[in-house]
Design goal:
Blueprint (H helix, E strand, L loop, with lengths): L1 H16 L16 E3 L2 H23 L1 H8 L8 E3 L7 H4 L6 E3 L18 E3 L13
Parallel strand pairs: 1-2
Antiparallel strand pairs: 3-4
Helix pairs in contact: 1-2, 2-3
């Protein structure tokens, strides 16, 4: 959440200096990936990012535009429920210029996560940063 909010702040400052302060963000939440071992924590992390996006929209674009863009909530899920030590990180954060479909074959123990929608993700360039706190 903090990384997303800071990037939005930088984006707003750049847009403001260009005279486009009310411009819609081009930083998609789906670029911020996460892995949580518990299903409930997975949903909380996803919701926290959605709320952070809404808060940034209110701050940088105003209440009316923020509400117009907030609902309906998107069904995409970019926070994966599973064990970060056992998942294939390349399927979650593909190298530059490749497209990967999220694989969930490692999650036999996590019945709840099988019902989550899979999404396709294409990394169109740039950098991939991985931060974590594994045991």
């Amino acid at each position: 959440m903090i990384a997303y909010k800071e990037m939005r702040s930088l984006e707003y400052e750049i847009n403001r200096r260009r005279g486009e302060g009310d411009r819609q963000s081009v930083i998609p939440l789906t670029n911020f990936r996460g892995i949580e071992i518990r299903h409930f924590a997975t949903e909380i992390a996803r919701l926290a990012l959605i709320i952070a996006e809404y808060q940034c929209n209110v701050l940088y674009r105003g209440q009316i535009l923020a509400l117009a863009e907030f609902l309906p909530l998107k069904s995409e899920n970019w926070i994966t429920c599973g064990n970060a030590l056992r998942l294939d990180w390349l399927s979650l954060c593909p190298p530059t210029g490749t497209g990967v479909r999220v694989q969930r074959e490692d999650l036999d123990l996590w019945q709840e996560s099988r019902d989550e929608a899979e999404i396709e993700f294409v990394n169109e360039g740039g950098e991939t940063y991985i931060c974590g706190n594994p045991p």
